[in-house]
Design brief:
This protein is of the alpha/beta class. It has one domain: Rossmann fold (3-Layer(aba) Sandwich), CATH 3.40.50. 50% of the residues lie in helices and 14% in strands. The protein contains 6 helices and 6 strands, in the order βααβααβααβββ. The chain is globular and about 40 Å long.
């Protein structure tokens, strides 16, 4: 479990990272960039290896995002790798399956929640799950809703 001087950690779901490259919705892009910048500068933001993999897959294969292999690797190495705190493990899979059974979220969503728990995060930023739903001490927050607060606020 990771803590930074007693401050609350937060987990970023893959779409948050992808929105940094999505020019189709400038408001979401700006909010995503602010979250990633805060995550890196404060040391409070966390992603998992799964987020890195999904980001690389979507960013380099999406015609809309158009991220080159070189730009993708630079982004991963400079920004995402330093905040990647959760790696795959059998225990993580077991936790995700348990969460899926309890919540009926998809396996992918349950794995994100399990990663947030594993990292000791209090908040999971995701637009793909129920806003303000609590799962094992982790509050899911959609950062793109008008009522959502940035972690620096």
């Amino acid at each position: 479990m990771y803590r930074v001087a007693g401050r609350d950690l937060y987990f970023l779901d893959t779409p948050i990272v992808l929105y940094c490259f999505d020019h189709g919705d400038p408001r979401k892009q700006l909010q995503a960039k602010e979250l990633l910048t805060h995550a890196a500068s404060s040391g409070l933001g966390v992603v998992s290896y799964q987020v890195l993999q999904e980001f690389c897959n979507v960013a380099t294969s999406s015609k809309t995002l158009g991220v080159s292999i070189e730009r993708c690797m630079a982004y991963v190495n400079q920004l995402l790798q330093p905040i990647s705190k959760v790696s795959p493990s059998p225990a993580l899979l077991e936790k995700a399956l348990y969460i899926r059974h309890q919540t009926h979220y998809s396996f992918h969503q349950s794995l994100m929640i399990a990663c947030a728990i594993e990292a000791g995060c209090n908040t999971l930023y995701s637009e793909d799950m129920q806003h303000h739903h609590m799962v094992s001490g982790v509050r899911i927050v959609n950062p793109f809703l008008q009522v959502a607060q940035s972690p620096g606020a």
